[in-house]
Structure formats: C-alpha cells, structure tokens
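Database export, one record per block. Field names are fixed; values are copied verbatim from the stored entry.
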Amino acid sequence: THPGTFESYDLARAHRLEKIEEEQRRYKEEHARIEAQIREFKRRAAMNDKFASRARAAESKLGRFEKANAPRERPRDQDVRMALVGGRTGKIALRVSKLGLPGLVRPFGAELWFGERVAVVGDNGTGKSHFLKLLAGESISHTGDFKLGARVDPALFSQLHERPDLAGDNAIIDVLRATGAELGKAHSKLKHYELQEVAAIPFALLSGGQQARFQILLMELESPTMLLLDEPTDNLDIDSAEALEEALLRYEGTVMAVTHDRWFMRLFDRFLVFERDGSVVETAEPPYPL
C-alpha cells in the first residue's frame, strides 16, 4: 500500500518502478558476467585441469548470487471491477430520533434521504462503529429510536472484518456457491475482484485487503439498498480504493460510511461528526481540510 496521498501515488509508483527496473538491469548484467566467467573457465579446463575447480567455484558463486540478489518483480497492474447495484427505496431512507448509545453517544436526531452519501467522522472510540452495527441490525445497547425507510435493506462492511458467518474452513469459492452463484459465475466474480488466485482459501486466511474486497463482493451479490461501510478503504490498495469510489458513484442507493480517509470524504454530501463529549453534530463540510 501507498502511505501518502492519492495525488502523490502516480509519482511514487513511477519512482518505485524505476528502482525495480534498475535492480533488474544490474542483476542481469552481473548474472551474465558470472555465466561468461563459467563458460571461459570450462573452455580452459579442456586444456588445463586447474580451471575445472575454478569453474565449479564460479558455479557456486552464481548459485549464491541468485539466492541473495534476486531482484523484485515488477508489480502486476490491478484490474479490480466492482459493481454495486442497489435499488429504489422510499424517499426517507433513515430517521433517527433521540438515539443514544449509553456511555458513548448522547441522544441525537437525523434523517437520511434516498441516494444520499453521508460520512460518519470523529475520533476513535466515539461510537461510530457501534452506530453502524445498530443500523445493520446487531444487538447494540441504545436509547431512543431509529427507523429504516420503505424497501431499505442495509448491509454492513466491517472494519475489523468481523464476520462470524465466514468463520470456518470453507473456501471463499464455496462461500459464493452457497449464495446460489453457479461455479462459472463465482470464478468470474472472484476474477473481477482480483481474488481468483485465492479461491480455495478460507476468509480468515486472506490478507486484510483480500478480506475487504471479498466483503464488497458479497455486498455486490446481495444488492442491498443501503451500504453501511466501516472504514472501507483502510486495507485497500490504491487501485481497489479507486474501484470502490467508482462503484459508489454508480450505486443506486443510500451510503453511510465511517471514514478517516480524507480523499474518500470527497464523495460525501454531508457529515455526522461524533464528538468526544458524546454529542453528534451535522455539517455540510468535512471537519478536516481535504
């Protein structure tokens, strides 16, 4: 992953590729030099036995060189294609009334309209993830009330990839088959998410980025009309994060996302700021400079 901003990514990537190409060039030059030395020693060994030991020593040297100095491979370009569909719902997608989370969030009210993109922001430990879990139907202690609109079907992306439904030894290809996807379609979907090479691996053994992409793939198959995303770009590489951004721009439905990603915040219409004192404030602009 790239630790800087999206703006600096192309420059950093080009610099990295230049370094890898230089490493490969130097490796090939030294490899060719040692091979030429071996050939010359073997040619001379045909006339003088003392060069046979030198040829063997040079071959050992080549083996050590290959093991210790193999250059990095040029990274393969990602081709992640996400297609989140969604669907029409009632005009009001969510109404929150005097909702509080004891010890975390003081009672507040809010409304989300169909098609809105609302970011939930604030410091860690202020109740943002608990709020999304509550909306997704998990048993979270709360006061007050909330109501989802007509035909609103939420799906939660878990920041920590806490998916008890994906625990166990089932390969992710089998998880897709269990949703009703035919084998060919399942393989095709995994390829769209650059997961075809780990099709036989259980969810728990995937990398953080692979787990994130697989969660989004499951959302694509479920076609929820409200996306509840808890730090969705946290473990995604740049290519995958951009694919998610493009998918959300096309998505027909309502999106609520917890995020600290200032570039990702550009997608959102307004912001619910969870403050340290437990209050929740609505703003039209992000609380941080983008």
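Remark 1: Residues 1-7 have pLDDT under 50 and may be disordered.
Remark 2: Residues 6-69 form one domain.
End of record.
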